[in-house]
Amino acid sequence: MGITVEEGEAFGAKFLEAFKSGFPENNHEEKMKGLFAEKTSWDWSDGFKGEGSADAIFEQFKKTWGAMVSCMCFQPDVLVDTTNSKVVMFDKLVINIDGGFPEANLVHNKLCFVLTLNEDKKVTNWTGIWDNEYAPMLEALGKVSAKMAAAKAM
Predict the structure, then answer these.
(1) What domains sit in the chain, N to C, each tagged with a CATH number?
(2) Parallel, antiparallel or unpaired: strands 123-130 and 49-52
(3) Above 90 in pLDDT, residue 37?
(4) Pairing label, strands 86-97, 69-73
(5) What is the pLDDT at residue 1?
């Protein structure tokens, strides 16, 4: 098993474009359709871990990051492990954690995604690594969570 550098880079670009395009309307499931194997696993820095259908990822995302982030600017370097069919994307990103409210909370943080692909070039593992205790991110998440909770209570 293995992939070429070109295949890995192409997949990484496709994955990233689909991922970023899901933020404005919180519709990652629709935008990322077809990128995941029937069974996959995930392990993210925010403690979200599991395995099964990618539907579980999208359900969680719809309630958390997808609901709180309106846009993402991320143009990472891509490293392809050709032997183990891994696509690694790493760089600093900027996300707007606003929960759909007019106040912007721009957060600049490092992010690394490691995607493992099967022979059909579908994701079988998605590891997401970032500083989950980064103070500006926690502050923005706290403000937006409070606003979202208050809006729900109305």
Answers:
(1) 5-149 (3.10.450.50)
(2) unpaired
(3) yes
(4) antiparallel
(5) 63
